[in-house]
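cache lookup: miss for this entity combination. No prior model stored, computing from scratch. Input as submitted by user K.M.:
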Amino acid sequence: MYRYDEFDARMVRERVAEFSGQVARRLAGELSEDEFKPLRLMNGLYLQLHAYMLRVAIPYGTLSSRQMRRLADIARRYDRGYGHFTTRQNIQFNWPKLADVPAILDALAEVEMHAIQTSGNCIRNVTADHFAGAAADEVEDPRILSEIIRQWSTFHPEFSFLPRKFKIAVTGSPQDRAAIRVHDIGIACIRNAAGEAGYQVFAGGGQGRTPMLAHCVGDFVSRDDILAFLEAVMRVYNEEGRRDNMYKARIKILVHQLGADEMRRRVEAEFAEIKAQGALHLPHAEYQRILSYFAPPPFADLPAVSATEGAARARDGAFAAFVAQNIFPHKVPGYASVSISLKPIGGIPGDADAAQMDAVAEIAARYSFDEIRVTHEQNLVLPHVRRDDLYAVWQALSAAGLATANIGLVTDIIACPGLDYCDLANARSISIAQDISTRFADPARQRDLGELKIKISGCINACGHHHVGHIGILGVDKKGVEHYQISLGGSAAEDASLGEIVGPAVTADSVADAIETIVDVYRAHRTGGERLLDTYRRVGAQPFKERLHAAHQH
Amino acid sequence: MRVVHPQILTAWRLDDGEAVYRGAGGWVRALEDATPFTGIEAAKAALEAAEADVAARVIVGPYLFDAAVERGVIRPLSARELIRAKGPTVRLDLGKQAAHLPARG
């Protein structure tokens, strides 16, 4: 894992001291709320519906056991005993007191964590594939470039006052588990025909009220040039992005208005200028230095197939079901990545209590080289587990209430905090997720439906990624009553697409019924091993619209 | 503009961000203790007066919302204010609805 060098440590300490002073001045009346608000937002501190909310950065979703234990400590000591893992691989605490925030940031700094750039119009926490460094299909560990971008972008003076917030995601595999096409910049690690490592760069993706898929602006950018190229994209955006209307300020609007070809031309021109100045390149030695932090742990030489695991699967059906659903192939024989679902049936997507965080930390320390990942789908991952240990890991997870075998299934739902917590929300999300999860609880039925990604947002800002859900659900307010618009056909993966609204908005108590209707249509039309998304793409929206219209016409 | 519904004046408490309401004797934690304003002038005047409490670091972000008042019971007209007055509907052990919270304010 990446370890802070002296610059990182000093920078974070200085920021904690600075913000501690700002909190003290606010509480003493030396700063007004108008003066304080932008300062607290720069440190990840929001004021939500019921309380302050502190958003803590988890760079590219990677945590050590020590860090996870510290998050549990903070949850217990300063919050209400739990935390919420988000679609940006971060964690949010929902109940901190203002006066406690400096102490929380101090506690985070001790384990090399912070809340810097988790809000505001800057480059936010870089997200990456949660199987980074482990996935069998990986071209390059995306955390290396993600860490380089983190160092380059943190407190970067030119990019501290962008027209709007800016999100970058990196995938190291052809299978996109980082949703790169719906980010301001999305990067795929690739190799060219000569076998050289480089990056394909997309720009202009995003969700929110105007969802757009990113366009490719660089087919192959060499490693040496990647920062210069990213700077070129940022510079075009910073100079030409709109600042007069916050709803039109994201880079997606600029790319849309210029057109993908013109955007690419401008980026190339800016890139040529930066290169001509020779100011910014990524030295091989520096790449190697960062790479060394992500060196593989000392894997043992193991047979690919584990007899221990096989025997356990044969005698314990629940374990076999867990392995079938929550295990991902590892690049090293005899190892696997284990997904820990934070979506128990009827539970709150992404929430973990302090005891569960401690349990995950303990299991990771013992079985996964101390490493934990947070996924953008609001689950956790133990990236490097011996297949021989899978049964013991499953037992330990079961004891902590963390062994739900539903990864990628209908109950593995993304939901933003929605109106239960969020000051921006128009409708609840979590309760809708709970209704659907409870309705589809039967494991056999879930497996029959196969991969089915439901994503729920409580407002048009789309933190719950509803535009790219196979089934997307958007909460809207109609005269003070929560209603839900349902869309079909979205995907955040390498086959990225935006969903299409398929019927009139329904009330909260009708959403699970509407999902039943959609699933019925899918089951009636599916062929072979088709997922709901595949069936929808083949047969189109019409059969779904007709049935929904008939079933929910009031 | 004519005020159709009674208005409730609310804000967040500075130190912990809890929702508070303007009651007869000051800021109160429970919506039931709030004072509904039935005239636009009175509501606006209360909102303006709240700026003094913002300056005094008691509250932040004061605003008015619509409510119905029936037999003395205040009921917000939006789902947002209903939830804000109680706590998360998915965690009945948290927020104002949680009985174990120490009395403050």
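stored under new cache key. Chain A has four domains: 6-110, 134-293, 307-399, 418-551.
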